[in-house]
User: Which sequence fits this backbone?
C-alpha cells in the first residue's frame, strides 16, 4: 500500500475524533513528566497530511514519508512548486507540554519554491483543528516555531515565532508582526539541530535550541484582524489554551529523526 493511500485511510478513521476533540485536550496515553515519541520510526501512523488545494488526508506527491527511521519532507516527485504548502498534523491536541524535535535540511529546494522558503520549515503549535481548514488555506491558524537553516553567509536564527492567524505577547507588549526572531545561533549545512518548546497553555512559552533558551513569550490568542483567525473566535473567546501540532512542507527537503512530547502538570 502506498504512503498516500495509507494516509488517506488513516484520515478517514480519525476525522471523527478530530472534529469532536476540544482544542485544549490532554490525551490520557501520554504520561505527565515522561517523554513519549509521536513518531514510530516506521510509517506515518498517527499523522494526517493537509496540502493547499487538496482534501485533508491526501499526501500530495508522497511528500511526507518515512525512510530509514527518519520522517522526511521530500520533493523528489515534484517538478516544481506551485504554492501547495503542506502540513502534517498529529491526530490529537495538547495543552501544556514540552515538545522536542531533531531536524535538518538536506538537498536542494524544489524548483520555483519561494526565496524565503530556502531551508525553511516549521512546527505549528496551538493549531486550529485541521478539519476546520479551508481547502485553499495556506497555513493553519497557529503559532509556528520556525525552523531555519543558514546560507553560506549571514546570520539566520532558528526557533523564531511566526503567527499565522494568531498574536501573542512578549515583554508585556502585543506582538502582531508575522515573525519575531529568536536569539539563537545560525546553523549551516546539513547538521542536526534540536529544538525544544515548553508550552503552558495561555501562559508562558519558551523556545530552546540545543539546550539554550533563545526566546520567551506568552498569551497566544486568535487574531481578530486575520480572516482565518477571526472565523475561529467563538463567543468572543480569543485565548488559546492548546491545540494541534503539525510539521510543515514549504518547498525545501527536511528530515526529522526525533519528535517527542512530555505532558506537563496543569
Assistant:
Amino acid at each position: 500500500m502506498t504512503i498516500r493511500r495509507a494516509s488517506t485511510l488513516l484520515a478517514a478513521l480519525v476525522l471523527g475524533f478530530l472534529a469532536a476533540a476540544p482544542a485544549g485536550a490532554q490525551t490520557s496515553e501520554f504520561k505527565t513528566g515522561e517523554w513519549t515519541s509521536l513518531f514510530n520510526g516506521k510509517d506515518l501512523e498517527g499523522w494526517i497530511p493537509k496540502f493547499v488545494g487538496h482534501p485533508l488526508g491526501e499526501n500530495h506527491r508522497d511528500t511526507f514519508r518515512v525512510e530509514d527511521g527518519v520522517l522526511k519532507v521530500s520533493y523528489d516527485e515534484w517538478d516544481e512548486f506551485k504554492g501547495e504548502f503542506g502540513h502534517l498534523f498529529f491526530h490529537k491536541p495538547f495543552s501544556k507540554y514540552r515538545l522536542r524535535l531533531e531536524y535538518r535540511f538536506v538537498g536542494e529546494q524544489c524548483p520555483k519554491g519561494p526565496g524565503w522558503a530556502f531551508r525553511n520549515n516549521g512546527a505549528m503549535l496551538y493549531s486550529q483543528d485541521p478539519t476546520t481548514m479551508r481547502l485553499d488555506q495556506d497555513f493553519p491558524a497557529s503559532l509556528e516555531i520556525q525552523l531555519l537553516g543558514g546560507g553560506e553567509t549571514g546570520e539566520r536564527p532558528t526557533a523564531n515565532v511566526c503567527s499565522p492567524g494568531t498574536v501573542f505577547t512578549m515583554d508585556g507588549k502585543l506582538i502582531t508582526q508575522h515573525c519575531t526572531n529568536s536569539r539563537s545561533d545560525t546553523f549551516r549545512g546539513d547538521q542536526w539541530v534540536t529544538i525544544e518548546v515548553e508550552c503552558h497553555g495561555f501562559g508562558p512559552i519558551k523556545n530552546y535550541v540545543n539546550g539554550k533558551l533563545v526566546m520567551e513569550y506568552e498569551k497566544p490568542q486568535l487574531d481578530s484582524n486575520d480572516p482565518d483567525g477571526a472565523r475561529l473566535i467563538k463567543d468572543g473567546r480569543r485565548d488559546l489554551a492548546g491545540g494541534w501540532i503539525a510539521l510543515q512542507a514549504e518547498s525545501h527537503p527536511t528530515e526529522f529523526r526525533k519528535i517527542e512530547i512530555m505532558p506537563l502538570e496543569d
